[in-house]
Design brief:
It contains 13 helices and 16 strands. It is α+β, with helices and mostly antiparallel strands.
Amino acid sequence: MPKKFRVGVIFGGRSGEHDVSIRSANAIIEAIDHKKYDVVPLAITKEGNWLSPAHSTQLLAPALQKKLTRYQTASGPVALLGDPSRKGLIELDQQEGSKVAAKLDVVFPALHGPYGEDGTLQGLLEMADIPYVGCGVLASSCGMDKVTMKTLFVQAGLPICNYLWFRRSDWRRDKKKIVRRVISEIGLPCFVKPANLGSSVGVSRATDKDSLERAIDLAAEYDRKIIVEEEVVAREIECAILGNDEPQASLPGEYVIYDESARFLDYTEKYASTGNVSFVVPAPLSKTLTNRIRQMAIKAFQSVDGAGLARVDFFLTKDGGDLVINELNTMPGLTEVSGYPKMWQASGIPFPQLLEKLIEFALERHQEKSLTRINR
């Protein structure tokens, strides 16, 4: 019988997207082939504490806890160390010293937002020499920072909407100056966002000076960099990317908003069953436009040196005239309502097979990187 691969699924984390990450982990562990993979759940609290597999399992759905019975026994604090000789989860014991609690063949970092999707965790895994799913340090950090991301899109010749950005310290120093600048350069209405977050956390639509100030105050709670974008009255199209050096693009999907009072997809609309929004895939587009979106999505992915997976979001003006890239997400939501797995399902790759491909791409990338000379 072939050896089962041991997959560490990391979830939770120090981020405003902590709860979404738990939902992604539940979906991954539910869909993964347990006959082929031995799953080790690894949760990180909102404070950044790493939980043992036993305690991590308790954060998952009851049905999944039964599948992971081998990790129900209590254990002490754990950590991943940047030491390639360990290649696994280390149990920390004050009495006996540290010891390897579980060797890991590959890690699936199902973390969204800072301290998980921004290159920090990827750097730790690189130092530990453990293969992992998704983009590397550079692509993850560039994909997390909307300002840097847009700069790379422009360099690649990709169309984007008008925007400006400033630091939280700039806002605190002179709020009136920032407000004047936004109104002059972007105009109202506009969207205000933390530069390094996703799932619409901290995002607001501003329609006047008062709501603009409130929006910036909110965004500043989540990040030291704030980005303001022009409002684009458009259809919201997404495209999923899969692969390493020769990535593939899925059929595009579209968020259809039935309640026009919901002017943008906030956190509630994305992850709660309000009935106001549905995700339609394939998106009702011409073949020519579909191919153009897929080509642009691949180009965006390559512009940040992506690997494994990403989701690229577009705005298509309702008269069908203009197509611009909004952003790229290097670890898109993988929940039961997320667009990424739905787009690949419609493109002929069901979720369990998709997870297997992501793991294969992680191992492929790790093998390719091992060919790089690191010593003189």
